[in-house]
Specification:
Number of helices: 9
Structural class: alpha+beta
CATH architecture of the largest domain: 3-Layer(aba) Sandwich
CATH superfamily of the largest domain: Cytidine Deaminase, domain 2
Helix content: 40-55%
Strand content: 15-25%
Number of domains: 2
Number of strands: 5
């Protein structure tokens, strides 16, 4: 019997699991396709089943690795073979990734690690099925003071109150903010309402010494920066 093969009397996927874990340790994750990384996550939650078809089914339904982990528990649980327990385990991994990214963001000024800001925003919001409006409050050195979800809306609208945004920044003694919201449609293109709301916040915040560094829109298909698009 070759090393890593299933032992007599054990299911065929037993040997596959050993080989996949060994390849992860020897070659690292960069050389593994998404479905194999997803298999590794599923092994502990689904001990008595071949996880390869299940991993491929999840990727087919949700698009990619990030889409699977970012999907709501309810939608994950709809997939045959997943259920609420496995879905919750995947969400725990997803939450851990977000916490790691947020911890890294706190170690240096946000404007010097813009890619981490984008990654964090996409991780926490891009795959939500309703709109959320989030604010990153910054100190005078552009360090993160607080990260708050201010409003949760519907699939295509979140009510935002510019004066409340600025009021909260003053309460936290923030000197700058980064606005973030998601588009559940998958298209991050700013709407006219997004542009108008951003300008209103800028107009109220500026006289009070609060800078609006950017308004980032995240979605499954990417992200958009209103500052980068010269829309603010």
């Amino acid at each position: 019997m070759a090393e890593g093969d299933a032992e007599p009397g054990k299911p065929h996927y037993s040997g596959h699991r050993k080989r996949l874990r060994a390849r992860f340790l020897e070659a690292g994750p960069d050389l593994m396709p998404d479905y194999e990384m997803l298999e590794l996550l599923l092994f502990r939650s689904v001990p008595q089943r071949d996880c390869k078809p299940l991993a491929k089914l999840l990727l087919q339904k949700f698009g990619d690795f990030s889409g699977v982990l970012g999907a709501p528990v309810e939608r994950l649980a709809e997939v045959k073979g997943i259920g609420e327990t496995v879905a919750t385990d995947l969400k725990i991994v997803f939450a851990a990734l977000g916490r790691i990214t947020k911890s890294e963001m706190r170690k240096k000024p946000l404007l010097s690690s813009w890619s981490q800001v984008i990654d964090y925003c996409r991780t926490t919001m891009a795959f939500e099925e309703v709109e959320q409006f989030r604010i990153l409050f910054l100190d005078k050195k552009n360090g993160l003071i607080k990260d708050e979800v201010q409003q949760v809306g519907t699939v295509d609208h979140t009510p935002v109150y510019p004066r409340e945004v600025v009021k909260r920044a003053l309460e936290l003694s923030a000197t700058a903010v980064i606005l973030v919201h998601n588009h559940p449609s998958g298209d991050p293109t700013p709407s006219q309402a997004d542009i108008t709301m951003t300008k209103q916040i800028v107009d109220i915040a500026k006289p009070l010494g609060i800078a609006v560094h950017d308004h980032i829109i995240v979605a499954r298909d990417g992200h958009a920066s209103l500052k980068g698009l010269r829309l603010m």
